[in-house]
UniProtKB/TrEMBL annotation:
Xref: Gene3D superfamilies: Chorismate lyase-like, Winged helix-like DNA-binding domain superfamily/Winged helix DNA-binding domain
GO biological process, one term: negative regulation of DNA-templated transcription
Record protein name field: GntR family transcriptional regulator
UniProt KW keywords: DNA-binding, Transcription, Transcription regulation
Residues annotated as domain HTH gntR-type: 23-91
InterPro entries the record matches: Bact_HTH_transcr_reg, Chorismate_lyase_/UTRA_dom_sf, Tscrpt_reg_HTH_GntR, UTRA, WH-like_DNA-bd_sf, WH_DNA-bd_sf
GO MF annotation: an example: DNA binding
Source organism of the structure: Desulfovibrio fairfieldensis
């Protein structure tokens, strides 16, 4: 178990479904861990299980776990020292990135009318996604993990946290369709919102739910919205298949 920050190592009801045949298992396992690190689920500096425990958690051989860790050490995401164990790096490598601007209203129009395949839901006390942004949190959230579908296309895998007070205003609506358009219908006040996009590879779980190849290019979007007090009322991690996303960006001088 992880010893620092009191943050549990991600627990899966069953090990992720790795593709066989497919990319090497160590590369698929590295994809899973890389995504957990870059999404903030595994915080900076946190200690991971040892190789034997990791192999048991993911249902792979110890040598596969070692190869995955070695790959992430080379990328600068993990550190591994004898006697001290395996840790997430305290500072991740800096990636060049593009600023891509849109508006909350444009997002509402883009995703309204989508249907939802609910994978998991629960009432929770906190939102781990907020750690990266250092934002004040709501007293409680409703967590949902789901797939969004529009015109027969599975266009997003999403994990989101919605202020429980807002969720309780229209739980049936929030369960049936995309959250942001319902927030707009309820006239929820959003004083500040931000999203960050990076390009990555599909983890085995994401690939399974979106119907794409493991390791296929995906757009990873981290998004939050705050009310007037600065409290985070919505936070989400959204994964879009790379070939189903297009950004139209006006270039200004």
């Amino acid at each position: 178990m992880i010893e620092q920050n009191r943050q549990p190592f991600p627990v899966f009801s069953e090990p992720p479904q790795f593709r066989r045949p497919g990319p090497p298992l160590y590369a698929q396992l590295a994809d899973v861990l890389r995504q957990q690190i870059e999404n903030g689920v595994l915080p900076l500096g946190v200690k991971l299980p040892n190789l034997l425990q990791m192999a048991e958690i993911f249902g792979v051989a110890r040598v596969t776990a070692r190869q995955a860790v070695q790959l992430l050490v080379m990328e600068g995401l993990l550190t591994a020292r004898q006697g001290r164990g395996i840790h997430v790096a305290r500072q991740l490598p800096v990636r060049p990135y593009e600023n891509m601007r849109t508006s909350w209203k444009a997002m509402v129009k883009r995703i309204e009318g989508a249907s939802v395949e609910l994978l998991d839901a629960a009432d929770v006390d906190d939102c781990p996604l907020l750690a990266a942004w250092e934002l004040p949190s709501a007293p409680a959230y409703h967590y949902m993990r789901r797939v969004h579908i529009k015109d027969g296309v599975r266009f997003a895998y999403i994990e989101l946290y919605l202020d429980r007070i807002i969720y309780d205003q229209a739980p049936e609506r929030f369960n049936a369709t995309t959250v942001i358009p319902v927030m707009d219908e309820l006239r929820v006040n959003v004083s500040k919102a931000r999203q960050e996009l990076t390009i990555g590879g599909a983890s085995p779980e994401v690939a399974q739910h979106l119907g794409i190849a493991c390791g296929a290019p995906v757009a990873l979007v981290r998004r939050y919205a705050c009310d007037d007090s600065g409290k985070a009322i919505y936070a989400a991690l959204v994964v879009h298949p790379g070939d189903r996303v297009r950004f139209d960006i006006d270039l200004v001088r």
